[in-house]
Design goal:
alpha+beta, about 30% helix, 8-stranded antiparallel sheet, 17 helices
Length: about 675
């Protein structure tokens, strides 16, 4: 039996140690949760491998035996399953504790079968040369909306495993992640997964992958994350090919914060990659961007449960707990150093992501507004790409205008707020950022339809500029969309893209039957039902990736929804002039069904400025005033009807239409029902 194979079968000591570690983990803590398990599994591997060499310990690990790498791939290509096999093979998780998607900790991740948060874990491994190595693995998300998570993980690594499904081949996000890894100057290990599937074509896709990366097809490793075939060879390839970190142990400590979470009992838990020097327990730490000094309560590594240690040295990945309760004190991308011997230069950090989609989030119960603010503060600690600012709506009250990286990101954030913080929320229809140039030369940046200039008086923007006069130009963001699909569906894809105001950039055949089509499209056309339409027209075979590509001038208008002549800002939307009537008809007919009938007739109108483009009427509730008439002259009946009509007319002039919260929720939910990407 080979060394890696023996490492895959830890001795009973491993299971007992892991069980002890699991029993020791408390509900509130990161502290002692995995110590027993790590020690036991380490002893088990030493016994199983038959070697007397001790396992490297945190803060005392030679950088030459450290390998920092991550797994990147398109969504559903088997990243989390491969991480599961690595956990089992290295013995850090006992067989009885193992479960599918072990590193996916959130319920929403397990329910949807997707990875939302990157997870770091320290794995011990005996290489083919008999030495003990430390592999720091980061499992990353695959969806385009979470590419910021991927880019942050890449900054903490020296190598990346590029995983491709052997039955589906290269897809759009595979290429996007490949370019991210190349930009970060990482060593790439190409791997084909799911070779055990009957539909797998490893030879075909190995050639495709080799052509894109620039290697030989024989260099592409073949694994099956489900059965474990080839995973040991992959770990040996990581040891052989990924370069060791080259930090300066003698320099002042510098650690890059690549993630943070909030623990109710212990405060902010910060995940760091040590670049230089050494950080030890009970050492005062300094955050270089905020200049805040904290006492370090605990330092440790994740294996895969938190294991406290004496410190972290250059090249290692671990966590810090300082007891900080203010979530703004531990920003992702900040540099942590020692307060006693601080570093002079901070690390490069991360380029802050630019939100692509904006939506308003409002609590159904107005009293929950402070709770929503605290929840967003804590969630931003865990998701640095979330941006938000307070706003008010006439119809919905106090809330926040939130910026997201995409529609799935928006959906996940809302669901996490409702689940983790027990909030009931209404979200407005998503929209993108527009730039409006008035004929006077003034510019207005519009993130909310209510900010869109209209009327001779103009509006006051957040910057205090009065945008009076006529609208000169409106600019909307455009993206460069990449679609990968079988060549049979080229016609259907082109028809869909052109119907969404797309402009063809180019087309390239990756193989005889797979094609890459590139379009420039308005972002506003993608964030609604484009993805669903693409999947339905290609029977699920197409994949989509997009990136910002500047802005373009467009003929855009704001459609207001009026109830009894008064605009309801929550239903306003900025749309292309060609589709304005379609939106107006759809919204008025939907509201007619949702708003309860009143004692008087209520007109629902869609308007562009002063021009009405669609109208529906909610008929008044009427008492049967003719019930007491039996026979008699028609003039008596007419007199009663005229009297009722006058009363309704008078009531209409003084009556107000109260739109119930249920109608808002139903209308805005129905408006987004086609936006689901998964």
């Amino acid at each position: 039996m080979s060394e890696p194979s023996r490492a895959a079968a830890p001795a009973p000591t491993s299971a007992r140690g892991a069980a002890a570690g699991a029993a020791g983990s408390g509900a509130g803590g990161v502290a002692a949760s995995g110590a027993g398990g790590a020690a036991g599994s380490g002893a088990g591997r030493a016994a199983g491998g038959g070697a007397a060499e001790a396992l490297p310990q945190p803060s005392r690990t030679d950088q030459a035996v450290i390998r920092n790498f991550c797994i990147i791939a398109h969504i559903d290509h088997g990243k989390s399953t491969l991480a599961d096999r690595m956990l089992q093979l290295t013995g850090v998780v006992a067989g009885r504790q193992m479960r599918a998607q072990y590193l996916d900790r959130m319920d929403i991740e397990r329910e949807r079968g997707i990875t939302i948060k990157s997870q770091a874990v320290r794995l011990p491994w005996r290489g083919a040369d008999g030495r003990n190595y430390v592999l720091n693995l980061i499992d990353t998300p695959g969806h385009v909306d979470f590419s910021y998570e991927v880019s942050r993980s890449l900054a903490a690594c020296e190598g990346a495993v590029l995983l491709v499904d052997a039955a589906q081949g290269i897809e759009a996000q595979t290429l996007a992640n490949l370019y991210l890894a190349l930009d970060a100057d990482l060593h790439l290990i190409p791997v084909l997964n799911k070779i055990d599937l009957p539909a797998a074509q490893p030879e075909k896709y190995a050639e495709e992958l080799a052509k894109i990366i620039g290697c030989q097809p024989s260099d592409v490793l073949r694994v099956s994350a489900k059965t474990g075939e080839g995973v040991a060879d992959l770990l040996n390839a990581v040891v052989d090919q990924v370069p060791a970190p080259r930090g300066d142990l003698g320099a002042p400590a510098r650690a890059l914060i690549f993630d943070s979470v909030y623990d109710t009992y212990r405060g902010v838990v910060t995940y760091v990659r040590m670049m230089d020097g050494l950080l030890s327990r009970r050492e005062r730490t300094l955050m270089l961007s905020t200049r805040a000094v904290h006492e370090t309560l605990e330092v440790g590594v994740i294996s895969p449960e938190p294991v406290p240690s004496d410190g972290l040295a250059a090249g290692e990945v671990g966590y810090l707990i300082t007891g900080v309760k203010d979530v703004r004190q531990a920003r992702v991308g900040d540099t942590v150093t020692s307060a006693a011997r601080p570093a002079s230069e901070p690390l490069a950090g991360y380029a802050h992501p630019r939100p692509m989609v904006f939506s308003g989030l409002y609590p159904v119960d107005g009293d929950q507004y402070p709770d929503l603010r605290d929840a967003l503060d804590r969630l931003r600690l865990n998701d640095a790409s979330l941006v938000y600012e307070p706003e008010t709506s006439t119809a919905l009250g106090f809330g926040f205008r939130c910026g997201f990286l995409g529609l799935l990101h928006m959906e996940i954030i809302r669901e996490r707020l409702e689940r983790e913080f027990d909030l009931s929320l209404i979200s407005t229809a998503p929209n993108v950022v527009y730039r409006v140039v008035m004929d006077t030369g003034a510019e207005v940046v519009v993130t909310n339809p209510s900010e869109f200039p209209g009327g001779p008086a103009g509006i006051a923007t957040k910057t205090g500029v009065i945008a009076a006069g006529k609208i000169g130009q409106v600019f909307e963001p455009v993206v460069r969309a990449t679609v990968l699909a079988p060549s049979d569906y080229i016609g259907a894809i082109m028809e869909l893209c052109q119907s969404r105001r797309g402009t063809l950039i180019g087309m390239e055949y990756l193989s005889a039957d797979r094609v890459e089509i590139r379009y420039t499209m308005p972002l506003a056309e993608i964030i609604f039902d484009f993805f669903d339409q693409l999947k339905s027209r290609t029977r699920g075979y197409a994949s989509l990736d997009y990136e910002p590509a500047g802005e373009q001038e467009a003929d855009l208008v704001k459609v207001d929804i009026l109830l009894q002549g008064q605009p309801v800002d929550a239903f306003s939307q900025i749309v292309h002039a060609d589709k304005s009537r379609e939106y107006g008809l759809a919204m008025t007919s939907r509201l007619k069904e949702l708003i309860p009938r009143q004692q008087f007739e209520v007109p629902i109108q869609a308007a562009i400025g002063a021009k009405i483009i669609a109208r529906e009427n909610i008929r008044a509730l009427r008492k049967d005033v003719l019930a007491k008439c039996y026979g008699g002259d028609i003039t008596r009946k007419r007199k009663l009807l005229e009297k009722q009509k006058e009363g309704k007319k008078r009531m209409k002039t003084i009556g107000r239409v109260e739109v119930p919260q249920e109608a808002f929720v139903a209308a805005l939910t129905a408006d987004q029902s086609a936006d689901r990407k998964l």
